[in-house]
Amino acid sequence: MLTATEVKAARALLNGPTAPLQATAAHIGGMCTVADLQRLRDKKWLNDTILNLFLETLSTEGHDIRDSFWFPYIKHTRPLQKPLLAPVHVRDHWVLLHCTNDTVTVYDSYKTHGVDHTAIWTQVQKALPQAVLVIADCPQQHNTTDCGVHVAAMAMCLTMGTPLTVPVDMREYMLQCLMR
Q1: What is the CA radius of gyration of the chain?
Q2: Which long-range contacts (CB under 8 A, 24 or more apart) does 71-79 make?
Q3: For a designed S-S bond to 134, which of 75, 105, 128, 141 qualifies (C-beta 3.0 to 4.6 A apart)?
């Protein structure tokens, strides 16, 4: 549960108990509600709202970060100018794509979930026909609800150029980033 102080701060940001967040902070261009933020504290699956808003907070010159709505509409345009990061939701599970002109790397934190990586690959090949598919070794989640948290942590590590890790307090870190 959010603390009373966090709920008060969230409501101040949201201008009311159920009003959507209207780009009141420079780094938040989307919309969320107190209930969206509550998902971080309650250890529930992350919805696209929270995941996309967190990815917006990652400041990066070296990566093109897309939101979760990009993947279904992927199409071939032109060679990538910089590596692309995008969360993809497949069968109730989040994975992270890291694409270059030569390689499409899938970061899957719950490989035993049975996500069909070939379905992702078939879609990506439309945009990057010359690329090869790599299923990365990455930290694995220990429950059925933290795939979005793992995607956020892996995106953060990739943009910072640090080893892939998932901090124990990643949900709290995400909440603090979104509440700034």
Answers
A1: 17
A2: 71/97, 71/123, 72/123, 74/123, 74/124, 74/126, 74/127, 75/126, 75/127, 76/126, 76/127, 76/128, 76/129, 77/127
A3: 105
Q: Given the structure tokens 């909440």, which residue do they identify?
A: 175
23-30 long-range contacts, CB within 8 A, separation 24+: 25/180, 27/56, 27/57, 27/180, 28/53, 28/56, 28/57, 28/178, 29/56, 30/56
The model's pLDDT over 23-41, given as tens digits with 9 standing for 90+, comes to 333 334 457 777 888 888 8
The CA–CA distances, whole Å, from 96 to 35, 100, 154, 158 equal: 24, 13, 8, 11
Six token digits for residue 152:
């956020």
CATH fold label, 4-179: Adenoviral Proteinase; Chain (3.40.395)
Model confidence band, residue 86 (pLDDT cutoffs 50, 70, 90): very high
Instruction: Report how far residue 114's alpha carbon sits from residue 117's, in angstroms, rounded to the nearest whole number.
Output: 9
> pTM above the 0.85 mark?
no
Task: Give the C-alpha separation, 95 to 151, whole Å.
Answer: 6
Which residues contact residue 150 at a Cβ distance below 8 angstroms, ignoring those fewer than 6 apart?
Answer: 94, 107, 109, 110, 138, 139, 141, 166
Half-sphere exposure of 31 (CA within 13 A, CB side): 5
Domains of the chain by residue range:
4-179
